[in-house]
Amino acid sequence: VAVLYSAAARDFSADHFATLRQVLRALLAAHVPFRVLSTRELGQLKPHHRVVLPALVALAPGEAKALSASV
User: Fold this and answer.
1) Closest C-alpha to 10, from 51, 38, 36
2) pLDDT at site 55
3) DSSP H helical ranges for 1-71
C-alpha cells in the first residue's frame, strides 16, 4: 500500500496532517505494510497494488496526470 503525501493538500487543508496520521495509525493497527510517498515520487506507484490519498483536496495538474497514468 502506498500512502500519498501531498504538499498541495497540506497547504490547502489545515487538517491534512491529522487525517494522514489517522490513516497511518489505521494501517499500523491492521498490520498492513505501507510506504508513504510524496508527490515527487509518483513514478514509484506501479509496484503498489493500492494507493491511499488521505485528505486529498488539491493536486497540481502534473500530479493528477502522473497519478492517472500509474493506475
Assistant:
1) 38
2) 65
3) 7-12, 16-29, 61-70
36 three-state secondary structure: strand
Range of lowest pLDDT (30-34, 49-53, 60-64): 60-64
Looking at residue 49, the DSSP 8-state letter turns out to be S
> In whole angstroms, how far apart are CA 35 and each of 9, 12, 14, 61?
18, 23, 23, 23
pLDDT tens digits for 4-50?
Answer: 887 777 777 777 788 888 999 999 999 999 999 888 888 787 788 88
Residue 46: count of CB within 10 angstroms of its CB: 11
First-last CA distance in the chain:
13
Residue reference for cell 498492513: 32
